[in-house]
Amino acid sequence: MSKLFTEDTAQAMLAEMKKQNNYLAQLTCEGTKALSESSGAGLHNSFFRGKNLGSALTAAQSAAIRAGTFDDMFVGDFWPMEVTYTYKDANEVDQTVKATVTFRIAGCDYYLGTGDLDSGLTAHHLVIVPDTVLYGARMNPTDTTEGGYVGSEMYTKTLARAKALINAAFGSDHILTHREALCNGVTDGKPSVYPNGHAWFNSTVELMTEQMVYGGKVFAPTSDGDVVPSLYTVSKSQLPLFTYRPDMESTRSDWYWLRDVVSGLFFADVGYDGITYGIHASNGTGGVRPAFLIY
Fold it and tell me: Residue 226: which pLDDT band, with cuts at 50, 70 and 90?
């Protein structure tokens, strides 16, 4: 009986397999190149990459963001930075500190077309979220949500430190101001009924909402069939970063504040263990993990 496979046949099969593998490798290489060279927020929001983009925002990166092409920048990419900055402490004394922070792309053009002025936000941008909390702070000196997020000590005083750090990291001319609808009034533990309870504000650095992290409301009160609280916000959908990497919603080392009012005493937060939560406004162990836009 003749052999099914001769040595020549085996060599021919190996050569064909090598050819096919080379072809597949070429396709993969070309596909990767095409993805990296493709432009626009849609594609660049469509998957998590996680590339180190360097220790500082470059002029070329800024130009690509402002052009809306987002060349070689995708969700999950990051800038690891050593930042020295100065802020005023609770006693209005200047403090200069150094921080090591990983700033990560959470989404492209998330706020495009939003806002109450003219045609809304027209500047292309990236939403950036640090991997960890920047520092610890309370929402208010006492357990109250009176005045909502805008009336809190966090908004009126404490976020100034985060703004100083972020300005030092990226440069204030790269931090994009946009318009946000923010809670400024609470009645019976809920954002006050329209037309009260919210207003439009210029915004640069803010705590995130439950929707930005989870994709929907969890602890924040909603309509109960009678009272319709002012839950107006343009920060209304889940950031792509957390869609693809829900493990990055929590930091595992610290819990952090969200800006949603939960009750007359509580603001929302994200537990270090990933649990959804709400906690007393005066709790000083909460972390500050804000979101901001660069361009």
Answer: confident
